[in-house]
Write a structure and sequence with these properties.
Shape: globular
Bound molecules: glyoxylic acid, manganese (II) ion
Largest sheet: 9 strands, mixed
Radius of gyration: 22 Å
Number of strands: 15
Order of helices and strands: HHEEEHEHHHHEHEEEHEEEHEEHEHEH
Distance between the termini: 34 Å
Length: about 400
């Protein structure tokens, strides 16, 4: 087949007519259809598929066992996301296996092709939820109580698809089977396009935190409430969004974003009673993220108080800075022909697993540099080169018995 054909097979699953692009959220119909596609594709390659207790899919070439070389990515998307963020890594991993099968090559160690659950955190708020649960970075109790936009808990969503909630939680035995993880991903920037190169390996992931801000004011009538007598949380949230930007621009390499806002009750002629706004902060160290958060929230408190509103701040997730495994990254870079190592500001399951397993990433050039939006893209020839490169990497890493 080809990576393109594999992506074509899923190109109609989860299209979002409202936002454009794709909305493929954990355990919703589109994501379930992608899981079925994954199982079918893996079965065609004679891989044995299992779902772990945390909803991550594992397609095994060989008996699951120590010394496993894992690859893959995720199938879920942000709301109105692109076609490549996640699925490119899964389709490329399947294609790499197909290329190796076509050579009649047989791995000396198990190979696992993975599709990790809820990487974006778009349904339940916590990114990389499947891998965080796997390694024990979040407790099952906390995870199962998370709610989606409709108030459905993860536990209810899990039960709805007959998953066994008693299996949710850390799985150190499974993690211990892994000797390496190589996640291929579309690049989410223009570095490779500027360098004129199709591929790179990952060097690091920026530290990243997400917080939910709840701003409470007083609901009232838009026509009868004098301007001086309002406590309007939309005004406070607007000032807060500016504060996020103003703090971030003062700090080199920092990012600060409010990308999601929910207004209650959201009526044209109604002064809102409450706003929830989600704050996403990234920087080049954990302490830099914390310091940026403190400075941002101090400014937001002032804006909220000036409007007579109240503020509640809840941390939804914190992802420390990740440096990928040096020797593995160097080896993969060499196997790909001496490609550069580049850092990224985007989060990945590879980042969660990196503190437990030697891990690295392969990035595929994105001509627009756009990601988390319909404009995300990758050239066909670069995608095929990525899969061929991944096949070379798997042949090398899984070609020799584990010591
Ligand atoms: C996921 O892609 C993230 O970086 O938030
Ligand atoms: Mn993403
Ligand atoms: Mn991704």
């Amino acid at each position: 087949m080809s990576v393109r054909k594999r992506l074509d097979e899923i190109c109609d699953i989860g299209r979002d007519p409202v936002h454009g692009g794709y909305s493929r959220h954990l355990l919703e119909p589109a994501e379930l259809a992608l899981r079925e596609w994954f199982c079918r594709s893996a079965a065609e390659l004679d891989l044995t598929v299992e779902t772990d207790g945390n909803g991550n899919l594992w397609a095994w070439w060989g008996e699951p066992g120590p010394g496993t070389i894992a690859t893959g990515s995720h199938l879920d998307s942000v709301p109105g996301g692109g076609a490549f963020d996640g699925p490119l890594g899964v389709a490329s991993a399947l294609e790499a296996v197909a290329l190796l099968r076509a050579e009649a090559w047989v791995p000396a160690r198990p190979i696992a092709v993975c599709a990790f659950a809820e990487e974006e955190g778009s349904r339940f708020g916590v990114p990389c939820l499947g891998t965080r649960l796997l390694v024990g970075d979040i407790t099952p109790q906390t995870a199962l109580a998370l709610t989606d936009r409709e108030g459905v808990t993860l536990e209810d969503a899990w039960r709805e698809v007959s998953m066994d909630v008693s299996r949710v939680g850390p799985d150190p035995g499974r993690v211990a089977l892994l000797d390496a993880l190589v996640e291929l991903h579309v690049e989410q920037g223009l570095d490779l396009e500027k360098r004129g190169l199709p591929l790179a390996v990952g060097s690091a992931i920026m530290a990243h935190g997400r917080w939910r801000l709840t701003i409470t004011g007083e609901g009232n009538h838009a026509g009868t409430t004098p301007m001086g007598e309002r406590r309007d949380p939309v005004v406070a949230a607007s000032a807060a969004a500016l504060a996020v930007r103003d703090v971030a621009v003062e700090r080199p390499a920092a990012r600060g974003t409010v990308g999601r806002i929910s207004v209650t009750p959201n009526g044209t002629n109604v002064i809102a009673s409450r706003v929830e706004a989600w704050l996403d902060i990234r920087a080049d160290s954990d302490t830099a993220v914390r310091a940026q958060f403190e400075a941002t929230v101090a400014l937001i408190r002032t804006c909220v108080a000036a409007e007579g509103c109240a503020l509640d701040v809840h941390e939804e997730s914190f992802s420390p800075l990740v440096s990928f495994d040096g020797p593995l990254t160097a080896r993969v870079a060499e196997l790909l022909g001496g490609v550069p190592a580049i850092p990224t500001g985007a989060g990945h399951d590879a980042g969660i697993l990196a503190s437990h397993v030697p891990t690295t990433m392969v990035f595929v050039r994105n001509p627009t540099g756009v990601s988390h939006a319909p404009g995300e893209t990758a050239r066909e020839e670069d995608c095929e080169e990525g899969a061929r490169g991944l096949a070379v990497v798997l042949r090398e890493l899984a070609g020799a018995q584990a010591p």
